[in-house]
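Open question from group meeting: does this chain pack into something compact, or does most of it stay loose? Before anyone orders reagents, we agreed to write out a predicted structure and look at it together. Recording both the input and the output here so the notebook holds the full record.
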Amino acid sequence: MSNAQRLNKPIRVVVADDEEPARNELCFQLEQIDEVEIIGQAADGIKALRLIESLKPDMVLLDIQMPGLTGFEVARELVLQKTDSHVVFVTAYDHYAIEAFEINAVDYLLKPVEPVRLRRTLERVQNLQRTDSLKNTTAKTLTAKELEHIGKFMANRYSHSDSIAVKVNDKLILVQSDEIVFISLDNDAIKIVTRNLRGFSNCRTLDELQSHLDPSLFWRVHRSHVVNIHKIKEILRRLSRNYVLIMTDPKHTQIPVSRTQTKRLRDYLKL
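Structure tokens returned:
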């Protein structure tokens, strides 16, 4: 079977949650997606581990607090067994996020799971499957141009973070990088703003944080500001011929564009 044929197959999923209503709701959402096949359900960690070992699903949706074995204990056992299944935690608690990603979780979903957010997770798993497929392709069957393309794909996949840690009060919250509206220097701190929260980064410099973000999506429009170009609501032109960006955060923050970045903005937006 070719790599392309394997990638066209549905994502085979096991769902584990000790609360039946939550498990049923998650399965209902998955059943609405053509690219998904639910191959097993479990109400405790021990059964979940046995199902995963026998069925070898592509993705496992794990609740954290379950009888028998917790979701974390199941995930750690899968790591020890070098299981290929991609683990996604689904929980009502946001304070486990850092620990979840320390054991190589693909994603961390908060209950109740939004359908759009679930689809984004499935897309991430599909991308990981493509990456695995590229790794398993023998170099003998590839031309130099194909090898170059794969190299660029792999470099892009691993150089940019899907999730960014944001410090809000005394908690660290993981947000999807494409949810960030803008990042700004606030005195000596680096402020991160999304539509739903404002917090700070633990990175030492704006350059360090920007290195973890997709450069085609995030622009350093000013020495103190990085913006998500998909989160620009409005563009104002000043008498000085410079521009000010109105962002989509609830405060509609105004971000100045430096003179050196004005031409780039004009070229991109055909101004």
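Observations to bring back to the group:
Confidence is low (pLDDT under 50) at residues 1-7, 153-159.
Residues 3-139 form a domain with the Rossmann fold fold (CATH 3.40.50.2300).
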